[in-house]
Each structure stands twice: as structure tokens, then as C-alpha cells.
Write a structure and sequence with these properties.
Layout: H1 5-21, E1 29-33, H2 37-44, H3 48-68, E2 73-80, H4 88-105, H5 109-113, E3 116-121, H6 129-142, E4 148-156, H7 158-174, H8 185-190, E5 202-205, E6 224-227, H9 237-249
Parallel strand pairs: 1-2, 1-5, 2-4, 3-4, 5-6
């Protein structure tokens, strides 16, 4: 089928971006704040439930794009602790979608072929029991995969994560398992949800908001940030390529 001019131009630009980034350092770990499902729904003229479904499908696309570049770790913020304050019908719809998503993704041929280990980060006890059960089954099914990591943040908040880590450390202190001099950055990192996961090199947020809103607060100290106005369901390959190109153009000094 003959390409229309806009599509042809898009493909040329995508090819140009691809050639620019593929021979330069690729981030090992990309964090993504999936923002703008409801706003994207309005633009597309669909209801918010369909918007969330499109958002889930978009995540699958973006994962393919990341694995094309061999990005080893991807961490996505799916649902925050604050999101539970939304209307019950919205929360229920998202949770029902989560059940279907986990059932699908753990059996996805791409997950198996690419040896993707899936983990969920957050206060799982806040999630419905059915979602918790699907998470357990998904993590169990992929626990031995060792090429890529996909971390899904659900019932997640950056402050909540730090609070939970401090509670665990204080509990061990009470049990005389650690002493004051043991407390350092490494100890705290080891008690976060992201224990044994490298800190993100690049964090992308869609939908125009220019803040982290609590996403990986401790881990993002030296991350590069990229904000785009594009709503998550409308996120394109060129938007990811641009984010990575911006990352590559920055000089990372790590405070030095």
C-alpha cells in the first residue's frame, strides 16, 4: 500500500532518529510515568475505560520499542496510592483491566521469548485480592527469566516506599539485627521496593506535567528527566526516540 505523505515523512523522521541514537549509549533502566489516559480518551472521543485499554496496549508497544534497543530494565508507574481516591467505578474498572492484563502478559510469547521477569512494586495489600493473586501467578511464571526486567508500580507512592523501608529498618533495629552505624545509603536502598534493581538512568513522563509526583524519589537522585506533552495512549515511537536522544545529549556528572 502506498504511504501517504504525512506517514512517509513520519517514517523518514523515525529512521533519522533511530540512526542517531542506536550507535550511542542506551539507558540501561528507563522509568515511565504513564500519564494522560483520561485526557487522551477525551481527545480520541472515547470513554475513559477504553482509554485505559488503549493505554495498556500502548505499554506493550513501548516495551517492544525498548527491547529493540536492548533496554534492560523498564519501570512503569501504573497506579498510585493516591489514585484510590478516584471515583469507585474508575478504580474498579482499572482493577478489572489489571486482572486481564496480568493473565495475558504472563503467557505472552514476547515475554517468554525475551525472557522478561515481571515484578510489581508497591503496597500490594491495598489491591483487591483477585489482583494480588494474578500478580503472584505472573511473578511466579516469570521468576526465572533473566534477560530483561519489567517492574510495574501499583498502589505505589515514593513517600510510602521510603516509610515502608524505614519501618523495616526500625523493626530490625528493635530485634538487634542492625545497629545505628549500619545505617547508610546502601542499607536504605536495600530495603526499598527496588532492592537489587539499578537506579533509573532516564525517567519519562507523558501528558505535559513536569514533576515526578513521588515516582522513585530515592532512586531518581541522578536520573535524567524527560517531559512530553503527548498523552500516554498517543505516545509514539518517535517520542521515545526523542527522549533517548535528549538523554544521550546530556553530560551526566553524578554531582561531580
Amino acid at each position: 500500500m502506498k504511504l501517504t505523505t504525512p506517514r512517509f515523512i513520519y517514517k523518514l523522521y523515525e529512521k533519522k532518529l533511530s540512526s542517531e541514537i542506536k550507535n550511542r549509549p542506551i539507558p540501561e533502566h528507563i522509568g515511565i510515568i504513564l500519564d494522560g489516559n483520561r485526557r487522551g480518551s477525551k481527545i480520541l472521543g472515547i470513554n475513559y475505560i477504553k482509554g485505559y485499554q488503549l493505554g495498556a496496549e500502548k505499554l506493550e508497544e513501548v516495551l517492544d520499542w525498548c527491547w529493540e534497543l536492548e533496554v534492560k530494565v523498564i519501570t512503569c508507574w501504573i497506579f498510585s496510592t493516591e489514585n484510590f481516591s478516584r471515583p469507585k467505578d474508575q478504580v474498579d474498572s482499572i482493577m478489572n483491566l489489571a486482572v486481564k492484563y496480568f493473565q495475558k502478559i504472563r503467557n505472552d510469547k514476547r515475554i517468554i521469548k525475551n525472557k522478561v521477569r515481571i515484578r510489581v512494586l508497591g503496597r500490594r495489600n491495598m489491591l483487591p485480592e483477585e489482583v494480588q493473586e494474578e500478580i503472584k501467578l505472573t511473578e511466579e511464571a516469570t521468576k526465572d527469566h533473566d534477560k530483561y526486567d519489567l517492574n510495574l508500580c501499583m498502589a505505589y507512592g515514593g513517600r510510602a516506599e521510603i516509610v515502608d523501608a524505614l519501618k523495616e529498618i526500625l523493626k530490625k533495629a528493635q530485634e538487634k539485627k542492625i545497629i545505628l552505624d549500619d545505617v547508610d545509603e546502601k542499607l536504605i536502598s536495600n530495603h526499598l521496593y527496588t532492592d537489587n534493581i539499578p537506579d533509573p538512568d532516564l525517567i519519562i513522563r507523558t501528558s505535559g506535567e513536569e514533576r515526578l509526583s513521588g515516582f522513585l524519589l530515592w532512586q531518581s537522585a541522578f536520573s535524567e528527566y524527560y517531559f512530553t506533552d503527548v498523552h500516554w495512549p498517543l505516545f509514539r515511537k518517535i517520542d521515545l526516540w526523542r527522549a533517548i536522544r535528549t538523554y544521550q545529549r546530556r553530560e551526566r556528572r553524578y554531582g561531580q
